[in-house]
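INFO worker-7 received task bundle
INFO bundle size: 2
INFO processing item 0
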Amino acid sequence: MESVIMGKEREAASGTDHRGGKYLVFQLGREEFGIRVLKVREIMGVQDITAVPQTPAHVRGVINLRGKVIPVVDLRLKFGLPEIEYTQRTCIIVVQVPCQAGPMLMGIVVDGVAEVLNLAAADIEETPDFGDGRATPYLLGMAKVKGQVKILLDIEQVLTCQDLQGLAAVCASG
């Protein structure tokens, strides 16, 4: 573990930290999160989501995106936040994540989209050790922007294909 941390520190010090770049910032509750713009395919308002039986609570179901059926995950529920009514600001961010069968589009429901930030590697700090032994592979780091902290997510770790095994078959046949 120590060598991994030292490696990351060396990587950051040598300027080869690849976390810099453009991030789409969105809200969940009072917190702001960022995902790489390169993973984002589209941002849309909430539309009718078709529920799929026997899926986890955070999997809202599927939507039809220009003839393609894609699964939709409510990120609030995935992160253990309380469920709230969708508002005018609630939206679906369509992202592309790798799966065994190839790249897959997925929608994530968020409370609202804030902005696109161009972050330098120097603006991003390592994720703190929360001390309870929990692994946080889905966190890329913490960005410091104008005195506020934005939590940067590795969306490929947040949305794993294993989460959506049942839906993958539904979507492939759609």
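INFO item 0 finished
INFO processing item 1
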Amino acid sequence: MATVSNKTTILVVDDEKNIVQLARLYLSNEGYQVETASNGLEALEKARSLKPGLIVLDLMMPEMDGWEVCRHLRKEGDIPIIMLTARGDDVDRIVGLELGADDYMSKPFNPRELVARVKAVLRRYRYESKRQSVTAVGNLSIDLDKREVYVNGVAVEFRAKEFDLLATLAINVGTVFTRERLLELIWGYDYFGDTRTIDVHVTWLRDKLAKSDARIKTVWGVGYKLVAPATRNERGGDE
């Protein structure tokens, strides 16, 4: 059984008791503290009082539906939300994501997949919360809000995924990421592409960072990390 630090609280909101019981069982077994609600109004009250680490939120509920709950919560903060629906309708998924949901699952679902998605969303949220508006590594400067990159004060153009990959490495400078973790963080849990996608993007990044004194280093058998000028001579793989 996995251990979750500080007993992260997950609020599971659904009017189907069997869904709630199943989610509680599997999430509790992973070390999460699980609270529940059976309608939208109760969900809002508990979200405001408990301030959970993440909410698993059904769309079709009495009192107030999941869309309305999500609207209220997004006006008040940025608690991660995974939406559930019994309907396999792309419109539901799109509307939910546009309202600010972080992920989406159709019912019935595999409870192990729910646990995996909860972990993935929480990891993305924690990395995002660590960031500052501007991150600097040597003469490399990244404006995360404007999505701009400068080397020695000169703007360098990056495609969307290139920027996301560079920002993830720069926010966590010195941290080694596996290719699988980078795919999950940047391309998302549902991405089924090859991990060589990361290798290709790293090659592109290295070309664009040629005049920077920050470098992306390969940690053989593991993955990649971004290193600052002072640590560029450390062992851990070729560039």
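INFO item 1 finished
INFO post-check item 1: Residues 132-231 form a domain with the Arc Repressor Mutant, subunit A fold (CATH 1.10.10.10).
INFO post-check item 1: DSSP finds eight helices and twelve strands in the chain.
INFO worker-7 idle
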